[in-house]
Specification:
Its main location: membrane. Belongs to the binding-protein-dependent transport system permease family. By secondary structure, this protein is an all-alpha fold. It is 70% helix and 0% strand. It has 13 helices and no strands.
Length: 296
């Protein structure tokens, strides 16, 4: 008599039972909180949330706000530059590390160390470094170049680039480690075959290795993009959104309206738009990772 196979539903019951609290917390806290925020973005909630429906009025006010438009523009400039430079520099450093250099572990630790710091610490450190009174400008002038000027955090035209320097300093090492892990996952036989065929190393990287690292690139772009969208700590620590509104970002807009201006409806509307931005990033990634894999 053939044995009946157990129902897959009842396999690994202990593991499934252990996952129940996490699933409930996700559904109640994250999903429930998200739905609650989106619903209240259509109300005129002020100090306390209330169901006084006003339709899209909060969104109309949001997109008529000059500060919100400036924050979106700033995020687009910072985000595009951060994506390009962090991935580019991280990939270049990973390729250099992939040459089996001496003291690789030491260099990798040094490059990754800034990522262990919080954005608040990073922002304060670079605020001091870029301070014209005792930072880079003061040091260079002390060496004899009296006319040297480098004060990006107080220049509305350059403040975003001052933030970018600090962001790259912190995040590039992490990108390097992701890229290096992808490079180390390439079969060594590919390198042996390219050397036998006399293919230059740069051409092997460009035409063979990098196309094989597509999943690593996609994952890295998603992680970096998600961090850019929620950018807040670095800006607060370095510039507090100034000078003027020159370094405002959407997360600061949300925080100020929800906790300082006591306008929950407007803050909920802004946070809903940020959620939409995250979904715009995550949905294509999920399709490329799972949909593309499903269709072969």
């Amino acid at each position: 008599m053939a044995l009946r196979r157990p129902n897959p539903l009842f396999r690994n019951l202990a593991a499934k039972a252990a996952a129940v609290p996490m699933i409930l917390a996700t559904l109640v806290v994250f999903l429930g909180g998200t739905i609650w925020t989106v619903v209240h973005s259509f109300t005129n909630s002020r100090l306390l949330p209330r169901f006084n429906w006003v339709g899209f009025d909060q969104y109309d006010r949001l997109w008529e706000s000059t500060r919100w438009i400036v924050s979106i523009q700033n995020l687009m400039i910072y985000g595009s530059l951060s994506l390009v430079f962090s991935v580019g520099i991280g990939l270049l450093l990973a390729i250099l590390m992939d040459q089996k250099i001496r003291y690789e572990d030491t260099f990798r630790t040094i490059m990754l160390y800034p990522f262990a710091l919080s954005f608040i610490v990073t922002g304060l450190v670079w605020q001091w470094i870029l301070n014209p009174d005792f930072g880079i400008q003061s040091i260079v002038r002390g060496l004899g170049w009296e006319s040297f000027t480098f004060n990006p955090l107080h220049d509305p035209q350059l403040v975003l680039y001052g933030l970018l320097i600090a962001g790259l300093w912190q995040g590039t090492g992490f990108v390097m480690c992701l890229m290096l892990a992808g490079l180390r996952g390439i079969d060594e036989d590919i390198w042996k075959a390219s050397r036998v065929d006399g293919i230059p190393a740069w051409k092997t990287y460009l035409l063979i290795v990098l196309p094989m690292m597509r999943p690593v690139f996609i994952t890295t772009l998603v992680i970096v993009a998600a961090g850019i969208i929620k950018l807040y700590d670095l800006v607060v620590a370095q510039t507090s959104g100034g000078p003027g509104n020159a370094s405002q970002v959407p997360a600061m807009y949300v925080y100020d309206y929800m906790f300082q201006a006591q306008n929950l409806g407007q803050g909920f509307a802004a946070s809903t738009m940020m959620l939409l931005s995250v979904l715009i990033v995550l949905i294509p990634w999920a399709y490329l990772e799972f949909g593309g894999r499903k269709h072969g």
